[in-house]
């Protein structure tokens, strides 16, 4: 019943557009229509990238990818490490509902700046750090890359 009422409201809003915009704000109309411009949940992934000598790796590009089911993978979600080798990735909402996110996803070093001379690595095993009020934070801890001997 509620859905029917919301649908009818949406039809009226679209039909009479201008007349209703004086009465309700855009945010109120979006909420009544059941659309979500407001983020319902948030999933963050954090980690630090270190060389085998425990130095932080600054400016490396990190990729995050998940199995979304039926032989499909998500596209790479990318981040760049800061001066301390840390990065944070805010996952897009279509990945929030993946069951066993910690097992379905991988982190990969996509590129490392030349001064570091480290090889790329795939990292598995993210862990849930906290979960409350629609927000989850996962961590991969410290990801250590082996330095190349060139």
List keywords for this structure.
150 residues, alpha+beta, Protocatechuate 3,4-Dioxygenase, subunit A, 2 domains, 5-stranded antiparallel sheet, 3 helices
Give an overview in words.
- It comes from Arabidopsis thaliana (Mouse-ear cress).
- Residues 1-19 form the signal peptide.
- The structure is a single chain.
- The chain has helices at residues 2-21, 26-33, 101-104, and strands at residues 42-51, 61-69, 72-73, 77-80, 86-90, 105-111, 122-123, 127-132, 135-145.
- It is α+β, with helices and mostly antiparallel strands and 150 residues long.
- The protein folds into 2 domains: 1-33; 42-144, Protocatechuate 3,4-Dioxygenase, subunit A, CATH 2.60.130.10.
- The strands form 2 sheets. Strands 2, 3, 4, 6 and 7 form a 5-stranded antiparallel β-sheet that branches.
- A hairpin with a 2-residue loop joins strand 8 (127-132) and strand 9.
């Amino acid at each position: 019943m509620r859905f029917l009422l919301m649908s009818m409201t949406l039809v009226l809003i679209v039909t009479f557009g201008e007349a209703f915009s004086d009465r309700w704000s855009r945010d109120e109309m979006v909420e009544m229509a059941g659309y979500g411009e407001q983020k319902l949940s948030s999933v963050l992934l954090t980690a630090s990238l270190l060389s085998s000598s425990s130095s932080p790796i600054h400016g490396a590009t990190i990729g995050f990818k998940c199995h979304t089911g039926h032989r499909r993978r998500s596209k790479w979600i990318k981040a760049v490490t800061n001066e301390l080798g840390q990065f944070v990735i805010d996952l897009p909402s279509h990945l929030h509902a993946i069951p066993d996110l910690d097992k379905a996803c991988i982190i990969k070093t996509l590129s490392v700046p030349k001064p570091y001379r480290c090889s790329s690595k795939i990292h598995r095993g993210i862990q849930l750090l906290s979960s409350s009020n629609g927000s989850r934070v996962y961590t991969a801890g410290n990801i250590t890359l082996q330095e190349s001997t060139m």
